[in-house]
Amino acid sequence: MVNGILQSFLGALQASISILLVIFYGVLANQYKLLDGAASKKIAKVCVHMFLPALLITKVGSELHADTGTRYVPILIWSLFFILVSVGIGLVAVRVFKLPAYVTPALAFNNTTSLPLLLIESLETTGILDKLLTDGDTVSKAISRAESYFLVCALVSNSLTFALGPRLLAADKEPEQEDQDDEESEAEQNGDANGDAEHGEDNDDEQTSLLPNRVRKNQDKFQARAFHLGKQLWDKIPQRAQGALSFMSDFANPPLIGAVIGAILGLVPPLHRVFFNDTEEGGFFKAWLTQSISKIGQLFVTLQVVVVGVSLSASLQKVKRGEDKTLPWGSTLFILGIRFIIWPVLSIAIIWLLATKTNLLLDDPILWFTMALMPTGPPAMILVAMAEVSGASEDEKMTISKILTFSYAASPVLALTVVGALYASQAAISK
């Protein structure tokens, strides 16, 4: 028993360290001027807007069938549950203990995409997932299911991140400051629209459109007119309706669109056949179109973690130069305690009870294992982008960067959570 636990812990520790090393490679890329902050932001943007939707299309679509779509319902409910509970804990902590507003999104939004996906890939090489395989199951099938489970969780997390994150970070801002930020943002949009319409041939650079000048000018004029027409129509909508529509529009993000496309391709039998079946079984698109989308989707997992390393390196450099204040240990320990101790214990216990005492979960140990891991881990790196959107001060943004640095440095602690989830899932099998 002791040898089995030690072997599982070492395997999970190796997987966690491999993730930390990938982050370290991003640090090296920044240290040696191969990637800077501007480049990492562009990479992060293309990861979220192109690579992650492509990954969702192929993973969710290939795993989703008309007769197996219900297997993802518990994940959707579980994801909403632990995120909203975390938001509640954060709001109470901010109000009662007077903690900074960034504590709430740091508790609510953990890394649900690149980190767990890379962890699952690393666990495959250690062999400890073999203990969760059932009759007729294989490691490759189990890994594919685990990735699709994490991606569905990531879909919920990303949707709520884009919709709630900036609002939670701006919770302690004064109303006048928020109004001023809105006016500045609107002025920038008006300026961009007017400026685009005034571009001429003399302003050509490496970012100039390849369209003919006449077409480009007509396009710029059309965009400017459409912007002003849309603004006029928007101003006629009542204030409450504007707020509701703005909130709903935040959920329409690229990952959600990718997941919807994947769900359609998976649930419609003719589309599933032509996109995901083998060629001899009618998969006309699989060998070329599906494979191309899958290849760019796979870029997301590693690139996003490398970007984490670049961002953390930039934060460490600012700390070294003395441009940052000391780490707020109270807030940091509170966040890490919830993310690495409280949620792992609660999630493992809750999933074990659901798997053994109810019929709410499918008889799939990989499902139990991944659900136990979903609420755990360090906060998402997108918190830095949220701070930019919400108009946080430079001191606050630097503090968030330092907390993220400390959180990812502590990520090998996840090995304990992996072992706990592994043995809880094994115990549930025997029940």
UniProtKB/TrEMBL annotation:
Compartment list: Membrane
Q: Among the entry's GO cellular component annotations, what is one?
A: membrane
Keywords per UniProt: Membrane, Transmembrane, Transmembrane helix
Top-level taxon of origin: Eukaryota
Please list where the region (Disordered) is annotated.
173-215
Extract the Pfam families matched here: Mem_trans
Q: Where are the transmembrane segments?
A: 12-31, 72-94, 256-276, 296-316, 328-354, 366-387, 408-429
Report the membrane topology from the UniProt record: Multi-pass membrane protein
PANTHER family reported in the protein's UniProt record: AUXIN EFFLUX TRANSPORTER FAMILY PROTEIN (EUROFUNG)
Give the coiled coil ranges: none
Protein name (Swiss-Prot/TrEMBL)? Auxin efflux carrier
Q: Where is the composition biased (Acidic residues)?
A: 175-189
Q: Name one GO biological process term.
A: transmembrane transport
Give the originating organism.
Exophiala viscosa
| Keyword Membrane set for record | yes
